[in-house]
Amino acid sequence: MQVLYTAEAQATGDGRDGRVRTSDGAFEAALAMPKEMGGAGGATNPEQLFAAGYAACFHSALRLVARRARVDAPDSTVTARVGIGSDGNGGFGLTVALAVELPGVPKATAEDLVAQAHQVCPYSNAVRGNVDVTLSITEAK
Fold first, then answer.
1. Residue 136 has pLDDT above 70, yes or no
2. One domain for residues 34 and 99
3. Looking at residue 141, what is its pLDDT?
4. One domain, residues 32 and 54
5. Which CATH number characterizes residue 14's domain?
6. Sign (positive or negative) of CA dihedral 86, 88, 92, 94
7. pTM given for the model
C-alpha cells in the first residue's frame, strides 16, 4: 500500500482519564471514562472519537461511490454508534452500527451505494472480520 497520509496522536495521563493530542496540534481533548463504565464522564472517550472518525470516513466513501454512480446525494448523513463491552475472554470488544440517510435516493440505489461504501471505506476494511458492523438506511428526519 502506498501511504498518502499518516496521522499521529499521543495519549497521556491515565489512559481513559487523560488527554489526547494530535502531533500538529489541530486536535486536543480531555478524556474521561463514561459514567456507564464506572467513570466520571464529562469529557470525550475513545469510543466517541472512533465513532466520529468512522462516521466521517464512511460518509466520504459514500459520497465517492455516489459520485461514481452519478447519484446526487447532497443531504446524505452517516451516524456511527460504537459500543464497547466484554468479549467474554477477559478483554473488551467493539460493535459498530452505521445509520445512513440518503434523502431522495430510491431504496435499492441507497442499499447498493451503502454496500459499495462499506467496501471502499478504510475504517470498514480495517475492522472487517474483527468488529461486528451493522449497516442501516434510515428515513430522513
1. yes
2. no
3. 58
4. no
5. 2.20.25.10
6. negative
7. 0.94
